[in-house]
Write a structure and sequence with these properties.
Layout lengths: L5 E5 L4 H11 L6 E5 L5 E5 L7 E5 L6 H17 L4 E6 L18 H12 L3 E5 L14 E4 L2 H11 L3 E5 L5 H11 L2 E11 L2 E8 L6 E9 L3 H12 L4 E9 L5 H7 L4 E5 L12 E4 L2 H12 L11
Parallel strand pairs: 1-4, 4-5, 5-6, 6-7, 8-9, 8-11, 11-12, 12-13, 13-14
Antiparallel strand pairs: 2-3, 9-10
Bound molecules: ribose-5-phosphate (R5P).
The site of ribose-5-phosphate has 13 residues, from strand 11 and helix 6.
């Protein structure tokens, strides 16, 4: 086997996505077992030859985050020791991203530590989608290809919305909202919120006009759903006609799906960077990032530009 060959590997985080990517590339996923020793330690064994191969390990670090991160690290180490030609960690959803700076005393920069661990394990490159903060790319001293899910989500909304306004649920989401608005030819509105603690938000007001329009709330992720449910309420109070939600990473912790279902949003669309809970309620849809990742992997493998293919 040589670097001429693409090898797709995966842990337990998202086998379905890995298989869809492999299918898109016209290859089979490599055979591996990623199990557990009786004490809970992770036990990895790759059954196929990887020597010299261009390996792509597909593993979002989604919940259970620690298990999936550790599986990724051990898979990378396995590939190093199996003499893979090059190892790319394909992390469609990068967990531990929220703590990306030291904004108060005595806290870690978790996103940097996770990046260090992935590089130290032996990854040569990272391929990811919609990082919580784009600057996390700089936490790696190896190349990072950072894709945007907008191209995957926007088609769905181009048809569904009449007189759209794109709403950022917080100040941090303004750039993303602008990118959607540019593609859809619409205006932008922002919800100005102040976060008091990780689970406590003091809501302020809306900047921009949503009255009588179809509002599309865009965000990088839904975890507990708290932020999005509040945002839906505020947009409704400001007179939006219909309310849609477009989010890259549907992490959906605890009762997030039920909360969003009860929020009265007219449609919720997420991608499959993270496996979505089944059965998905009516008005919830998922769009696959597999074709996007397959095209990126093909470009990386053939040393073609990725940024030229996928823009935000
Ligand atoms: C915040 O900066 C993020 O973009 C999301 O809005 C937030 O992490 C979502 O969290 P939750 O769903 O728990 O409110």
């Amino acid at each position: 086997m040589t670097r001429d060959q693409i090898s797709i590997l995966h842990g337990n985080a998202h086998p379905k996505l890995a298989q869809a990517i492999a299918e898109g590339l016209g290859v089979e996923t490599k055979r591996a077992t990623v199990g557990r020793f009786p004490d809970g330690e992770i036990d990895v064994k790759v059954l196929d030859d990887l020597r010299g191969s261009d390996v792509f390990i597909v593993q979002p670090t989604s919940p259970p985050v620690n298990d999936h991160l550790m599986e990724l690290l051990l898979l990378i180490d396995t590939c190093v020791r199996a003499s893979a030609g090059r190892i790319t960690a394909v992390i469609p959803y990068y967990g531990y991203a929220r703590k990306d700076r030291k904004d108060e005393g005595r806290v870690p920069i978790s996103a940097k530590l996770a990046a260090n661990m992935i590089s130290t394990a032996g990854a040569d490159r990272v391929l990811t989608i919609d990082l919580h903060a784009a600057q996390i790319q700089g936490f790696f001293d190896i190349p990072v290809d950072h894709l945007y899910a907008k191209s995957v989500l926007v088609d769905h909304f181009a048809k569904a919305l009449e007189e759209p306004v794109i709403v950022a649920p917080d100040m941090g989401g303004l750039k993303r909202a602008r990118a959607y608005a540019e593609t859809l030819g619409s205006q932008v509105a922002i919800i100005d919120k102040r976060r008091l603690a990780a689970d406590k938000v003091d809501w302020e007001h809306m900047i921009g006009e949503v009255e009588g329009k179809d509002a599309l709330l865009v965000d990088d992720m839904i975890t507990t759903g708290g932020s999005m449910v509040q945002a839906i309420r505020i947009v409704r109070e400001h007179g939006a006609r219909k309310i849609f939600v477009g989010v890259t990473h549907g992490v959906f912790c605890k009762d997030a799906v039920q909360k969003l279902e009860a929020s009265g949003a007219d449609g919720v669309v997420v991608t499959d960077t993270v496996p979505y809970p089944a059965p998905f309620p009516e008005r919830f849809h998922s769009r696959s990032v597999a074709p996007l990742l397959a095209r990126a992997i093909d470009a990386i493998h053939h040393s073609k530009s990725v940024s030229a293919l996928f823009e935000d």
